[in-house]
Amino acid sequence: MRFVFLVLLLVSPAFGEEIRLDADTPNEVLAVQALIERFDDTDYVFRTDPLLEVVPTFAIYAEAAASFGECAIDPLIQALDGSRQSRVAAAIGLAAIGPLAIRARPQLLEMLETGGRDSILACAIIQGIGPDAVEFVPQLRLLLAADDFHVQYRACRALSAIGPGAGSTAGALIVALREGVASVRRNAAIALGNIAVELDGKSKWAVIQALRQTQNDYSVPVREAAMEALRNLGANFTTGETA
Predict the structure, then answer these.
(1) pTM of the shown model
(2) Same domain for 204 and 136?
(3) Cβ neighbours of residue 88 closer than 8 Å, sequence gap 6 or more
């Protein structure tokens, strides 16, 4: 989706004057580097699709860099060592690239172990990678017990994206579903609906029962997420019986 690159020209008319924009340009690496150099910009633009929202330009630059695919991976990984804003932008770009971002394995492990904001960025990248990030399940399980609820629900999202390969975290996700704040409970429910599909009968039944217990949760989004999770597992919200 390199048309995003054209948006950048509207935002910064002088930007990209020496970079050819045709799809076969030999200057892809140069284009990616030029985009990454803008990661510390503090400007904003309005975006109408899919929502009317104010978007920081560094996020647009990150999306544009990701549109170049594999050649952007190593430069984006290097950008993880930059300023705080540069690191956020790099995470956005790597998450958008998807499974190929697994090449950031050493950086992801370090970020997960560091905790805090770094672990949130790591979770975002892992969420983009999806099932191929199954090797990070042990670290993500630990994050479910983090002091910061932002870390907790980001870990839930990453585990949800990994899917059945994260089935071993069902017990920890059930605890998060029972004890977390609303955003954690909602994301834990979603994750359980995705990871528990291949669990053995007893373990799957424990997940179903835990999801059923949210039917009186005060949070509508939590209840809705639990109902959707039960549908994924072929279970009824009221009785818990499987189809």
Answers:
(1) 0.84
(2) yes
(3) 58, 121
